[in-house]
Design goal:
The structure is a homodimer of 301-residue chains.
Chain A lengths: L3 E4 L2 E2 L5 H12 L5 E8 L4 E8 L1 H15 L18 E10 L3 H19 L3 E3 L12 H5 L2 H8 L21 E5 L4 E7 L4 H11 L9 E8 L4 E8 L7 H13 L5 E7 L4 H11 L11 H8 L2
Parallel strand pairs in A: 5-7, 6-7
Antiparallel strand pairs in A: 1-4, 1-5, 2-4, 2-5, 3-4, 8-10, 8-11, 9-10
Helix pairs in contact in A: 1-2, 2-3, 6-7
Chain lengths: 301, 301
């Protein structure tokens, strides 16, 4: 598998395991798709599927997803804690290996066109696929939720990028977009003073003058008697883990505080870790092609 | 592919590309085998095949290798710069993922028994598979080479572990053994004083009191005006890259010399790099299962 694109659709069903299983099975059966994970949250009444493949496989997987979801999820009868506007609520496309964000933007348009023409569902392009800055932010697009969209879409500002200017009666609308892989990364500090974590979070996050692709906040870890800088790395290729780690280390030293440890929550691409090894070992001309497992992935299929 | 065992057989043919291709094709066709690399050295008149698979696939690959090599390579007509004792000279088995050295030792015995019974070729178990310390070192086993083995094997000390006590008339004898993955790792220093590299190499290598799984020597890089500590990491899980790097850094500082860079030559397992990232980022509870590409390898097959 030379090209690996990750697709992480969120669907508005998290309480009926049988229905989620049927949908997951449909995605898994699409040619070239490898379904890696399915997580359901009953209180959100929402599930997240994680699958990978090349561009053709991702298209087939998304098509299978909509074919399975549209007859099974009726938003007029959906309730849950998480805001939502569609039966398939959002379809993020993430380049992992052998593909660029730009290629995923092209793919997102093709996927969007097919969803609109096949099911008559309006599609908004978001994040790196957004046609304008106003549509980059998913939360802005989703405002009003399913129940408010018939009205919202009368505003010319909210004409969809693909499909009709009215929500699908049961499936609502959907956002499709390319974005970089997100890594949930936490750095734990040897203090119980939340102010230290807060001030470091402010120093490193984009909004406060820090790294462009970092979102961060301070969190108390009561049971450990420590605090944490909780970070979303929204583009690890441009703002890598090690640079943020070293910056937090330096800022913490200013308070006489040391880093106890850090943690990656959930999945991360291998390159995010290779970049740290490359930095600290000062590797010359390192390429992930030198990694045996990378060869295995490329030789496969 | 949950279990990945690497097999790197060396064969005594490096000048006839067609013959090497036929042998490689036979290995590639074995069920479950993924052939990753074939490198021929005409002056050595020797080729190295790199293939991976689970235990069953490696067995099938080795069987296919011998079936292809025995009728094609005649050691009575072989010459080359590299010492050799067999048409298939050595069969190293290396655990990469989901397998231990101990499991590869078991596998080496099964492979050895099959080679001996199917082709009547004597087999010596070496490295971690060796029945005694005297047989651990491949160079010791190989002494006398093909031409000397009829005589050498009359010595009861050199009765083979499997097969008859006389060399195969055209295929000679073979060494089979489990060993850890070897990483060729060089650290480049910001000086042209070879004495500095030599003294650091002596400090870090096992024979001189250094790390147990490190072999090292100083090398001049004339064209760069620098010197290099050239290292063989013979067990990166027990003596990891970052520990050697930091030790070299500290020793170099004592001479007022800094590390310019380091390099991995050829292939390395992903875990060798993950261990460095884990160390420097002080990761808590990191597992390679958190790496997306690892999931892909495991979901496959």
């Amino acid at each position: 598998m030379r090209t690996v694109i990750e697709c992480v659709p969120n669907i508005s069903e998290g309480r009926d395991p049988e229905r989620v299983r049927e949908i997951a099975d449909a995605v898994r059966a699409a040619p070239g798709v490898r379904l890696l994970d399915v997580s359901s949250d009953p209180s959100h009444n929402r599930s997240v599927l994680t699958f990978v493949g090349d561009a053709a496989a991702v298209k087939a997987g998304v098509a299978a997803l909509f074919d399975a979801v549209v007859p099974r999820i009726d938003l007029t009868r959906h309730e849950g804690e998480h805001p939502r506007m569609g039966a398939v609520d959002v379809v993020p496309l993430i380049p992992i290996r052998g593909a660029t964000v730009e290629e995923c933007v092209v793919l997102s348009r093709e996927v969007a066109a097919e969803i609109a023409s096949r099911h008559g569902i309006p599609v908004y392009l978001y994040e790196d696929s957004a046609a304008s800055e106003a549509r980059r932010n998913l939360a802005e697009i989703r405002k009003g939720e399913f129940e408010g969209f018939a009205e919202k879409m009368k505003n010319p500002k909210w004409v969809p990028d693909f499909g009709p200017a009215r929500p699908h009666p049961t499936a609502g609308v959907v956002a499709v977009g390319a974005r970089s892989a997100l890594i949930a990364y936490n750095i734990n500090l040897g203090t119980n003073d939340l102010k230290v974590a807060d001030s470091i979070a402010r120093a490193i996050r984009h909004i406060g003058g820090g790294f462009r692709y970092v979102k961060a906040m301070g969190v108390a870890l009561a049971e450990r008697g420590q605090v944490q800088v909780s970070i979303n790395m929204i583009n690890y290729t441009k703002t890598p883990l090690h640079r943020v780690f070293e910056c937090v280390k330096s800022e913490a030293e200013r308070y006489g505080v040391s880093i106890v440890g850090s943690e990656i929550v959930g999945l991360a691409p291998a390159d995010a870790l290779f970049m740290a090894a490359d930095h600290y070992l000062r590797l010359e001309n390192f390429s992930s092609d030198q990694v045996l497992e990378t060869r295995l992935l490329e030789e496969g299929e």
